[in-house]
Design goal:
The protein has 435 residues and is α/β, with parallel strands linked by helices. It has 16 helices and 15 strands. The protein starts with 6 loop residues before the first helix and ends with a helix.
Length: 435
């Protein structure tokens, strides 16, 4: 009896003997529903074709036999669609490995879709700060980066999208400067076409920078109000007057576009929720971020989490659309045994990138040559080569960070966050020049 993880490999084996008929009927869609059960979708013209109908019955019977509980009864296992090509365009799908004309549509219980990678269409360079696990200093690093960029005269827009565990705004804004509303308020009001009421009052300027500006959009406003009730609604899709459905991530992107159009920042920094959930999915794959910082501490939980994510991108065929945007950040580098720790971090990062993301380098070629996307282990320009962030006691508590940054010695910021800030600066120059 197959388990969920065996569904796709088993389907590849099942379809192999039917390759000729599959090519004739292409595309053939595999719909995997919310319960993990699969059925086929093909163009309705094959319903009246005697030979192809027999083939479909044979495939349905074989799927039922091999997948058991993960398959529909054979007589219910094939659906016929009037316009299969148009249907396919409307769905998010990926090719079944080894079978060129079969595509899998995965129905998920959440709106997040790690396989839908948005194009780089944003007019402002966007950088996402992400980590597989929390407590790695990600939000602190973002606050320090925003401060450093603003000190250089840049206008920096900061979004706190860690909606279920907000806190970044407290690092950049004292209580008396926080705006009345936040991202959660807008997402809820937008459901009833009332977003304009809160839009102008959801951004506040931090007083930390004297040269540029730090514009902060918090998860919630100065008075959270019924935050839990609102949080339970932010993920809702919206149906407009024409009946068109907009996912919550579509709505979030529309908000970000509007914020950038209104406040005209030089760069946008986005604090994502940790973990592989729908908020992180939207931040990383659907907001057109050109730089995605993957915060890492050298532990099995970190690397196994990133490997799961990278393997998913490989499996769903989108890895080439996302991999060049990624960059490892070595988080909370210890003060003792630093060199040994960094060496271990680099080795583990190299292992996972070379095994899951980089192209194999053919004999006689070198990394980076022609269309080969790969790097040597010790290439400091490589995305696996960690941008270091050192741990320091005075920056360990986000709650007190506002006061710490207010009186900070710029040299201290450079010592602790220098490689990260320099890397973000370079990515802004590159992205800004290409947009």
């Amino acid at each position: 009896m197959s388990t969920f993880d065996e569904i796709l490999p088993d389907l590849t084996k099942i379809f192999n003997p039917f390759q000729e008929d599959v090519t004739k009927m292409k595309p053939v869609l595999v719909n995997r529903d919310l319960n993990g059960r699969v059925r086929l979708i093909v163009d309705e013209k094959w319903e009246e074709n005697e030979h192809q109908h027999i083939v479909l019955d044979e495939m349905a019977s074989k799927i039922n036999e091999e997948l058991g509980s993960h398959a529909y009864p054979a007589k219910q296992a094939v659906l016929f669609e009037p316009d299969i090509d148009d249907f396919l365009k409307r769905e998010s799908c990926f090719q079944l490995e080894g079978i060129s004309d079969v595509f899998v549509i995965d129905r998920l219980a959440v709106e997040g879709n790690w396989s839908r990678i948005s194009d780089l269409t944003a007019s402002v360079p966007r950088t996402v700060f992400f980590s597989i696990k929390g407590g790695v200093g990600r939000s602190t690093a973002l606050a320090a980066t925003a401060w450093a960029l603003a000190e250089q005269g840049k206008k920096v827009l900061v979004l706190d999208l860690d909606l279920e565990s907000p806190g970044l705004s407290s690092a950049l804004l004292p209580e008396d400067r926080r705006p009345f509303y936040g991202i959660t308020d807008w997402l809820v009001e937008d459901l009833v076409n009332n977003g304009d009421v809160v839009f102008e009052n959801m951004v506040a300027t931090s007083a930390l920078s004297h040269n540029g500006e730090i514009l902060v959009v918090p998860a919630h406003g100065a008075n959270p109000g019924e935050y839990i009730a609102k949080l339970g609604r932010v993920w809702m899709p919206k149906i407009d007057s024409d009946g068109k459905r907009h996912s919550w991530s579509d709505r979030l992107r529309r908000l970000l576009d509007a914020l950038e159009a209104r406040w005209q920042p030089d760069v946008t920094l986005i604090d994502s929720r940790a973990g592989i959930d729908e908020v992180a999915s939207a931040c990383i794959t659907e907001l057109s971020a050109s730089t995605i910082l993957l915060f890492a501490i050298d532990g099995d939980q970190t690397w196994s989490g990133y490997r799961v994510l990278f393997q998913h991108w490989n499996r769903t065929g989108v890895v080439r659309d996302i991999r060049e945007r990624l960059q490892i950040v070595g988080a909370m580098i210890p003060e003792v045994g630093t060199e040994e720790y960094v060496d271990g971090l680099l080795e583990r990062a190299w292992d996972i990138f070379s095994e899951e993301l980089y192209d194999e380098v053919p004999a006689g070629k070198i990394s980076g040559e022609d269309s080969v996307w790969s790097y040597d282990q010790f290439d400091q320009s490589a995305p696996h080569y960690p941008w270091e962030v050192k741990w320091h006691r005075s920056f360990a508590v986000l709650k007190s960070l506002h006061g710490r940054l207010k009186d900070i010695d710029p040299e201290m910021v450079k010592v602790l966050f220098g490689p990260l800030i320099a890397g973000v600066e370079l990515s802004i120059e590159i992205d800004g020049g290409s947009q």
